[in-house]
Amino acid sequence: MPRGNVQTGLASWYGPNFHGKKTSSSEIFNMYDLTAAHKTLLFGTYVMVTNLENGKSVKVRINDRGPFVKGRIIDLSYAAARVLGMIVPGVARVRIEVLNKVSFPASQNYSVQVGAFVSKENAEALKLQIRKKYKDVYISTFATSYKVYYRVRIGAKSYDSAHKIAQELLREGFTVIVLEEK
Fold it and tell me: Other CB atoms closer than 10 Å to residue 155's CB: what's the count?
């Protein structure tokens, strides 16, 4: 979504259970900051979020990934949700507009995560399914003290190519996130 692009859909919010924990951008989440989680926008991107039910707006900075609930386009911090008047309902129909376009070095690699599973067999099945259409599909493992997660990802050489892949997958019904590879 380059500068000026608009997206409409459902927003939700998160706060106390995540306050003080690390975000996907490695920043510590502060529920009182005007921040948000988005599936594909680069970290550091500013967006204007408008609650279409009451007309209230707030400017937020993307610093996390999500939301992970189907049909939602942005997860707002508690502070942002409070400005928009959506604490009690928890979910609101919103419009988001990109205010700035953040750029990273061309040498930065990205991936598009299409799924995360505790079953290696399920991850392998999804990998085979999407490999028919996309190149550079791989499984990345992530171990916690309780489980191992098998994450199905598609490699991309630039943010633009990752964003294009993500948009195609979203149209196909997948829930995706764009990640900056370290």
Answer: 17
Whole-structure pTM value: 0.66
Phi, psi of 63 (to 5 degrees): -140, 10
Query: Exposure pattern of 103-113 as b/e (b: 16+ CB <10 Å)?
Result: eeeeeeebbbb
Distance (Å, rounded) from C-alpha 35 to C-alpha 39?
14
Can you state the percent helix, strand and coil of the chain, rounding each to 5? 20, 40, 45
Question: pLDDT (tens digit, 9 = 90+) per residue, 65-80?
Answer: 999 888 899 999 999 9
Superfamily of domain 110-180: Sporulation related repeat (3.30.70.1070)
Residues 6+ apart with CB under 8 A from 57: 48, 49, 50, 51, 84
Pair 101, 4: CB distance under 8 Å: no
Residue ranges of domains in the chain? 6-98, 110-180
Q: What is the pLDDT of residues 134-177, one digit of tens each?
A: 989 999 998 877 888 899 999 998 888 888 898 888 888 888 88
- The SS3 assignment for 76 reads strand
By DSSP bridging, strand 6-14 and strand 57-64 are unpaired
